[in-house]
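Appendix B. Extra example for self-study. Work through it before the problem class; the solution is given directly after the inputs so you can check yourself.
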Amino acid sequence: MKLYDVADLAIRNLRESVFRNSLTTIGISVGVASLVAMLSLGIGLQQLASRRLQKSGLFDTVVATSRRDLRNFREQREEGPPPAESPSLDEPARNKIAQIPGVVEAYPDIRFVTEVRFDDKPHLTMVAGIPFSARNNNDAFDGMQGSFFSSDGAAEVILQKSFAEELLGITPKPGTDNTNLADLAKPLLGKELTMRYAERASAPSSPSLGPSNSAAYSVVSRQQALKIVGLTDLDPDSLRGTARARVFLPLKLAQDLHVMQPNLRDTSASDSPSYTSLSVRVQNPNQVPAVEDAIKKMGFSAFSIVDATRSMRQFFAVLDGFLAIFGSLALAVASIGIVNTLVMAILERRREIGIMKAIGASDADVRGLFFAEAGAMGLVGGAVGVTLGWAIGRLINFGMNIYLERQHFPSAQIWSVPMWLVLSAIGFSIVVSLLSGLYPASRAARLDPVQALRYE
Amino acid sequence: MDISGPNSVAVRTENVCRHYQMGEALVRAVDGISVDVRAGEFVALLGASGSGKSSLLNLVAGLDRPTSGAVIVHENNLAELSREQLAKYRLHTVGMVFQSFNLIPRMSLLENVELPMRFAEVDRRERSALARQSLERVGLSGRLSHRPMELSGGEQQRASLARALINRPKLLLADEPTGNLDSRTGTEIMELIRSFNQSLGMTVLMVTHEQALAEKYASRMLHLADGKLVNDLSNDGVRGISSEPMQAPGPGGKTQ
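Solution. Structure tokens for the complete assembly:
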């Protein structure tokens, strides 16, 4: 029999006992739905976690440092030129690094402790420059109050929650985290604060010291008015440990201020600063080793953390496996339903099978017909199940976000149904259905036509 | 051998047996029948219930396999055919008509007649035209989209005949084709079968227990009793070509 005829007859047969076949198909749908819902949550959690980790900058950042700082501690294992001949990590070097394939940006690490005045009260804190790209790449700014910097050089500032509390004189009770960020933002957003800092200005060149003496500079006391534009709950600088900043400036502004800071090695202080370290952000964590090598070839030191994501992926592979097994249990139960439905159909259509065989249907024709019926139930059940599972996952995501909101957490996407999941769930459903149809189909095919025709 | 030639053997059974085990008892449904049927013959299989006539018909139809002996149809020994080959044989060589019509109730007449062509993988467009023609030939052109249950017994049997003939078989096997019909309708059906036998030269093997019907339409009558052939008569009173010596006369059978 041709495929079209098999499909046509199978659909007619399914429509004949539409109620029973619908129930069986619903059984498959529920199985597929539970599988899809479980896996969509597993995948969603995995994506959430890897998004967080990626945005943390831990896995897509290479830190490049100049070897000149190792002038006195020659490191044996490092390849490349000796530290004294190593190139300076200056602006041209930074541009060069930024052009390595896979590198998104390379920016200097600027941070310093200084005094910030608000309401005429001084507060001492760590201030850090934030690259403009962090607006999209750092999830600390996802749930922020107010807005991100309007430009890379704007005289604007974003405060970390704990510093905002300090400015307003609020002391949170230990162990509780119930201060609402929005309440803190109201009295602060749009206000101005004044940052006092020490600018390092180039010293007049002295023939006795020579032009390349980097130790020669003067310090000028300055102050800068900054507008508070945003408040963030999470800590964008969380990986810095004790050097964590609580006040954030646009990186360009921070650079232009020429603030004296312990790790910036200015040779001339004015136009061509030389940095001790650069953060190099890479497009994809997989490119980190290649970028690291390229930086080393340029004569700098480079380090990164790459392998940490591997264990995370392994954990999620195991989690997804467990979720898939539990999800598949319902599908296994549904497959018993298919066997039952088809065996019932054989009993009911026994005479019809006998007639078909008497007028020339082969075993393969009869088998194909039952297979097609099982496959069709699998296809429809799979499609309905995927839709159902998608909806269930969405519902759980929705409920979870209400819970997160109540707990004052930013909303999160903990659910994801990628196309491969849709296709493989439907495919899996068809395969399970066909396997369930195996026994009934071969039983129908082996039916003795003489016996079947006698059956009333 | 020319299979359509008037004297060629269409069906030959050689000491064919079909025994069943029923609990402890061995049922000898067909018990050593040897007979030759020439192409184009109209043969009636007569006998009481349980005489083995339907069992013999099923063996010739390739629906059942003999316990021993051979059934040779147009030089094919059915016992040697695989299940797949037997299905092909039923599809192309044999057309079957049953007492209870055996149309598929949820299909229209047209679809019922088309069904064997689906198994034969005839093109869809061609199929419908051929099925219409076949139904027209049995006088059912106005009933194409009716379902079997909406028709009289006679009409259902006509449709069943149209289906049996759709793949142009060489052999028409009829199992009590008038058994569920009144005598007038039964006569109509028998006239149709005779016309196919005469116009298409189709060999007909018909199981019946109505002696009169057999005498009127068949050219040869085989009487069976207890699974054995007890009498083989051509309708003009001449003994047929059975290769076995005749045993006791069958019920109502004429002996020479």
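Self-check: Chain A has a mean pLDDT of 80. If your reasoning did not lead you there, revisit section 3.
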